[in-house]
Structure formats: structure tokens, C-alpha cells
Amino acid sequence: APDAPETPEIVEYNSTFIKLKWEKPKKDGGNPISGYNVEMREKGSNNWVPCNSFPTKGTEYTATGLREGQTYEFRVAAVNGAGPGTPSKPSQAQKAEVPMYAADAPDQPKVEKITKDSVTLSWKKPANDGGTRITGYVIEKKPADGFV
User: Fold this and answer.
1) Model pTM?
2) Which of 45, 65, 74, 131 shows its CA 20 to 30 Å from the CA of 109?
3) Does the keyword Repeat apply (predicted)?
């Protein structure tokens, strides 16, 4: 039987799918690898569940039908004429959720009003909110000479 493939990596995800990729095993056991069995488990469980009914041919797989908010781990076993080999180490745990990214920067601040104690600024919100509601802004200042 073949050696274990490299640990699968998460390459893309959302609330209903997680896409994996992995490197083939270093040794095929003397027979060509015909495919890969992919298994998943909910984080904290010891119960590995098959993802595919038949070995997948390539070194990528998309697990679908996941429960939003649940965290999953994946492992892969290469299959050849002798059967399935040792499974890989589990992937990093990944929650099935819509990914969020940092928002783009807002427009350049505009000075609206200056007093001896304060300054009032305004700006346009970023075009891209990163996939979630913007909850605040960080304002920084520095002396007029530019030195801190």
C-alpha cells in the first residue's frame, strides 16, 4: 500500500464547502496510485467520515454540504492496487463560514472644522467592506513637523 500523502491544505472555503489540496505520497508502494479517499470529522470528534464514494483521481477535492458554523478537519489516503494506504495527518481545522477580509482604506480624510482644541474630519467609507459591516475607524495623528 502507498505511504501517507502530505497533510491536506485548505485553499478555499465558504459556509457550504471547503476545498483541499495535497501532495502525493513519496512512495506509491510499488503500484501506481489510482486515487485518494478523503475523510472529514467535526473538530473534537474521533469519528472520521468518508467524503467521497469512489477515490478521487487528482490531488484536490471540494467537500460540500457542510453545516455552516461547524469546524471540520480532513485527511487523505492514497489508493493503489493493494488498497488504501495510511491516512495523512489531519488538516488545520476550518470553520464552514463566509470568509471575511480587512476592509479597504477609506478616502483621504477632509478637514471640516478646526478649533483650538479639536479638528473635525470627514471621509467616504471604503468601496470594499471586506465582506462584513464596518464597525469603526482608527484615527491617528502626528505633529505638523512629521516627527513623533
Assistant:
1) 0.73
2) 131
3) yes
